[in-house]
Design brief:
Layout lengths: L4 E7 L4 H6 L7 H25 L4 E4 L1 H6 L1 H9 L3 E4 L12 H19 L5 E2 L10 H7 L4 E2 L9 E5 L2 E7 L9 H4 L13 H15 L6 E6 L1 H4 L2 H17 L3 E3 L1 H16 L1
The structure holds zinc ion.
C-alpha cells in the first residue's frame, strides 16, 4: 500500500436522499423525482464510464432503494460490482432512538444480503454521521470496513470509544464528495451549483497531492443523482483519465483496500 489507492464509491440513494433529510418529502413528488433520476438516468451513465475504462467501484445502496429500483440494483450486480450497506431507508442515524437504528441496520443488511446473495462487508452512514451505537452495530455484525470519517488521508483502524477495533476505516473528505458542489434544491438555502471545471480541478489536485505521499487513499464519494448528469459525467471521466495517465495510483474496491490495510494495521497493534 505504499502508493496511492483510489476507491470510487457511488451512493445510490435515489428518493431516500430527500426522505432522509426530511420525511415531509414523501408528499413532494417533484423533490423525490430528483432522487429518482439517479436510478433511472445517472446510474447507467456511470456504469458505462466504468466499463469503458475497466475500473473497479463500490456501491452503497439503502435496502429501500433496492426494493424500489430492483432493475437498477440488478444492473450494478450484472456489471460485476458489489453492493455494500447503507442502512434501510437512509434515515439520519443521529436522529434515531437506538432501537430504531438497530431496525434500520438489520433490515438494510437483510435486504442487501438476500438480493445480492452476498453479505455486505462495509458500511457507509447516511449523511455522514454516526450515533453512539453505530460502531457497536458494526462490530456486532462483523463488518470489515467503514467509510465515514474525515480525520485522515490513509486507512486506519476504527475506534469504539477508547478501544481500537479491527474494522478498517476508509476516510472520506468533503472536497472528494459531490454533494457540496452539486446537491441543489431551491428549498435548500445557501446552495449554488458549482461548475464542472471547479470540481475537476478539486479532484485532480487532491490526487496530485496525495499521490506524492506514502500510503495514502483517495475515496471519491458520489451520488448517481448528482454526478450522473452529462456535465458531471464529463468531470468523472476526465478525472479518471487524469489518474490513469499519471499512472502511479491503483484503483481498487473498498473491500479490497480494507483487506490490504488490515493485513498491515492489525499486526502493528501488537
Ligand atoms: Zn447516502
Amino acid at each position: 500500500m505504499a502508493g496511492l489507492s483510489v476507491v470510487l464509491t457511488f451512493d445510490l440513494d435515489a428518493e431516500t436522499l430527500w426522505l432522509g433529510r426530511d420525511p415531509e418529502a414523501a408528499r413532494r413528488p417533484v423533490m423525490l423525482s430528483m432522487g429518482r433520476y439517479g436510478a433511472v438516468e445517472g446510474l447507467p451513465r456511470i456504469l458505462q464510464v466504468l466499463k469503458r475504462h475497466s475500473l473497479p467501484a463500490t456501491f452503497f445502496v439503502p435496502g429501500l432503494v433496492i426494493e424500489w429500483h430492483p432493475r437498477a440494483a440488478e444492473s450494478i450486480l450484472e456489471a460485476g460490482f458489489v453492493i455494500e450497506h447503507h442502512t434501510y431507508s437512509h434515515a439520519w442515524l443521529d436522529t434515531l432512538a437506538p432501537e430504531q437504528e438497530r431496525e434500520e441496520f438489520e433490515r438494510g443488511l437483510e435486504v442487501v444480503t438476500s438480493f445480492t446473495g452476498r453479505r455486505p462487508r462495509g458500511f457507509r452512514s447516511p449523511a455522514a454521521e454516526f450515533s453512539a451505537i453505530t460502531v457497536d452495530l458494526l462490530e456486532e455484525y462483523g463488518f470489515a470496513f467503514s467509510s465515514n470519517m474525515f480525520d485522515s488521508d490513509s486507512p486506519y483502524l476504527l475506534r469504539n470509544g477508547d478501544r481500537v477495533t479491527d474494522i478498517v476505516e476508509l476516510p472520506i473528505a468533503w472536497p472528494l464528495i459531490d454533494g457540496p458542489f452539486w446537491l441543489y434544491s431551491h428549498r435548500l438555502p445557501g446552495r449554488t451549483i458549482q461548475s464542472p471545471s471547479t470540481v475537476l480541478e478539486t479532484w485532480t489536485r487532491e490526487h496530485d497531492g496525495l499521490v506524492e505521499e506514502e500510503g495514502r487513499s483517495l475515496v471519491l464519494a458520489t451520488h448517481p443523482q448528482l454526478v450522473g448528469r452529462p456535465s458531471r459525467i464529463w468531470v468523472l471521466e476526465r478525472f479518471l483519465e487524469h489518474v490513469l495517465a499519471d499512472g502511479r495510483a491503483t484503483f481498487t474496491t473498498a473491500a479490497e483496500l480494507a483487506e490490504a490495510a488490515r493485513a498491515e494495521l492489525v499486526p502493528a497493534l501488537g
